[in-house]
Amino acid sequence: MSGALFGLTFAVAAPFWALMIVAPAWSWTDRIVGSPLIVAPVLLVYAVLVLPALGDVLPVVTAPTLDGLRELLGTADGAAAAWAHMIGFDLFVGRWIWRDARERGVPALVTAPVLLLTILLGPLGLAVHLGLRLGWRARRASAVAPAAPVA
Question: What is the domain count for the chain?
Answer without folding.
Answer: 1
